Amino acid sequence: MIAVPAAAQAPTMVYLVRHGEKATQPPNDPLLSPDGQARARALADVLAHAGVSAIITTQFARTKLTAAPLAEKLGITPEVVGVTSGTAGNLQSQADAARGHIAAVAAAVRKYPGAALLVVGHSNTIPAIVAELGGPKFADLCDGDYDQLFILEVPVSGTPRLVRARFGAPAADAACAKMQSQ
Hints:
Layout (H helix, E strand, L loop, with lengths): L5 H4 L2 E7 L15 H14 L4 E6 L3 H14 L4 E2 L10 H20 L5 E6 L4 H7 L15 E7 L6 E6 L7 H8 L1
Parallel strand pairs: 1-4, 2-3, 2-4
Antiparallel strand pairs: 1-5, 5-6
Helix pairs in contact: 2-3
């Protein structure tokens, strides 16, 4: 009988969050607002002992800055999986670019079987990344929704399991919460 390493049998734990609250400047690549900076620190506190060994962000400052406190605490250099915008004005091209990014993030996650990872994305990519990794499909996050933490357990075989939690200061407004519960 061939022994299989324990790490190969362990599920992959994927923690997914939307970037923290963004500032208004610079307009093309906004930084985090003070609330977003506080949220990034809260995320680092929540995941400090979760065994995270890899972090995936986009090229945008707000995702990098959201991951930065945890990356610094754990001594991890985040992997950047870029988002392309597609051809301006061409919705099909933009949709293709988004699908390509989502597939690339899922491929990056799959490079770490049995590990724990943090993925920092956007309101329209986090739900699609969860689905791409085998989790349930759900609607894009609301614009004001920054406090959700999605924990996706991806087993070696079988169906992934998703847990939705919240972290940091409450961010979702009542209209958003009502819409998502329907």
